[in-house]
Queue: 3 jobs
Job 1
Amino acid sequence: MQYHEENMMKCTELKARQLKDFKSLDENARVQLLQSSKAISIPKGSIVFKENQTLSKLYCIRQGACKFSILDNNGQEQILRFLGEGEVMGKRSLITNKGAKVSATALTDTILCCIDKREIIENLNTNTNFCNDLMAAFVDDMNTNEHTRSIFYSCKGIKSRLASLLLYLGEKFGMNAEGKLHLKVKREDMAAVLGTSPEYIINLLKNFKSKKLIKTVKREIYIMSKSGLEKIN
């Protein structure tokens, strides 16, 4: 990950919903983790780590959102997952000592709490409860992957999957009282999720808009009818 020294801060607290905020560790262990950690502010579009890169940190998303992606055989980006606050990146590489299976990129201006791998491994070796928390995080990943597979990879048509994707983004990242999705996802990223072209996504969004299922203001998307989107097949 590329960043400037002025973007580095000290982590003031350990927050990671997937690891139960490290509450299974005693106070001394948490203090040691904080001392070895850095909070890094990275701008939208920045790469956190690349596919096959060996990782020396565990990345906890304190603020913002990221995406996991790979390059297919044709060199095209395929988005596998969106991640938000409280989720953790780099768990598999940390445990297996193998390179990352995906690339991670910031979808918004993002703050990451980066914790040294050696400190994590030491606590895993000495704290059974912390091991269980990590295992639960892997199970959470599996459940999330199963949930998103129906959107990202199902045999349903792209129109139905796009409707499901919009509902998923609203559920995962939230929306305001007017239905505006909190996370603004580029049309190119939607296309990379669904395996189609940005132009086709734009045409489908226009179709949804004409049916008053959504509205768009510049690049922002508002969900106007959840039930209408749910009925698309």
Note: The mean pLDDT is 90.
Job 2
Amino acid sequence: MNYWLEASIEYANQRNYLDNLFQVYPTIPEGLRDIDDDVWETVTVAFERGDDIRLLESLLRLELFPIKDSYVAYLKKDRDAIRRNPATVSRLCGRLYELGLNKIYENSSQPKETNRQIGPMFRNWVNKKTLGLLPTGIDRFMSTTENAILEASDAASMEFANRYLNYTQNKGLDFVARFNGKYIIGEAKFLTDIGGHQNAQFNDGVAIFGQQNLRAIPIAILDGVLYIKSKNKMHKDITSTLKDRHIMSALVLREFLYQV
């Protein structure tokens, strides 16, 4: 098994892994969403008058619609569709009237889901010099052969890797660096559960290993439930078909970089 993968599994199972991981992914739920007083006033008036169209139009102005329904996204993108689809409007508003104003307000002000906040956390952690270097912009990164971490958007990182490292996948990168004259590129994921969307995130994180002829060392910086010794798909994969790949926790990344 790859040394860094084995070290990550051992770290997760024998040390205060979650306590230390919180430095990388401080997933503190955000406060309740603010609801504009003027918008809420129009919601209240429309609700009390039974004005379906105005009720929907007003609620669609909020960041979070109070009920989950597959047709809401369409109405958000095409407000004119509200007046063209009376049966859909009636169906949605029937559910809203059943909820009542208090529950509508409560649902619309729910905080963002934690997993939607995770994306930039790894990059924020890297930007705190936790890996021994402050990330640098593309011009500085290219003007030296010294150890460096690229500070760039997903798209800019992808463009750099496309142009110089023979990276051909059409997706951004969370990490691009150069240590001891070698380039390292990879994805960072915090896998908080097993199954469904999290399996898709895992597959996305390890997709880089399918890339041929890279002029860089591909890595997957993965954290979370995949290191729990069990029969879940992710753990099976990392201990079988992917056992020789550079899969590692963010918590061992610094040690990996300086010995690469």
Note: The longest strand covers residues 182-191.
Job 3
Amino acid sequence: MKIRQMFDNKNTVFSLEVFPPKKTSNIDTIYTTLDQLSELKPDFISVTYGAGGSGGIGTGSLTAKIAGDIKSKYHIEPMAHLTSIYTTKPSAHAILTELQELGVENILALRGDRMPEREPETDFVYASDLTKYIADFGGFDICGACYPEGHPQSASLIEDTIALRHKVDAGASHLVSQLFFDNQDFYDFRDRMHLAGINVPVEAGIMPVLNKKNIERMVTMCGASLPKKFAKMLARYENNPEALFDAGIAYAVDQIIDLISNGVDGIHLYAMNNPKAVYKIYERIETILHASNRA
């Protein structure tokens, strides 16, 4: 099933993101995680493309395998990530062919993160270039990434919105946002989208705070700002892992409830391969999700 259709059938789509295990880890760890997450019956599960979203040798096939298993074993729609920065046209063709053979119909097209020790490929300079290639290849529903506070490398929010319009025009039928911690940033972004004539569904990407180190790394990578309320929470509980975990869950729940109340198209929960955190959040929002989709 194409994910774009889900937005026509539900007021609030709910999805999860997982990542493949590191090369040094047992691949069975991801299936232990999926065994638990699948019980929540999310609308779809996305699978990232290698460490840090950079891709690399062999990671495409691992992403494809896990995505294929999500569909065939767990009967949940998968969305496979594909990054442009280290992908050539021949390798993209091979990955897309493999995904089709596995019955995977949905792709999140991204630029990906640059690795200092490796020069980028030049076939797809921007995510929009990869998006168009996938659209021309045919058979896939394409999701694009968006940044509520603007892409870190965009000169302005106007420039970022123009780039997003190019991505949608290239074939992205819906969007999923990078993490953010102030919902007003998301609402302002949604207003900019609509003013620019970008009217595709957009899921809000929510990442629960599990520990201070991880969240600071992600904020550095994606450029998200920390509201005073959030920063005070980190400062107060940074030396108490259990308290920080519980406070982070509560913060994410508050964000999600507010977003659903304000008509968000979907919630994309960055699961961090941590079923415990996902379950704690889901049990707090389950009835609200159901109420939204009955409205």
Note: The first strand starts at residue 13 and ends at 18.
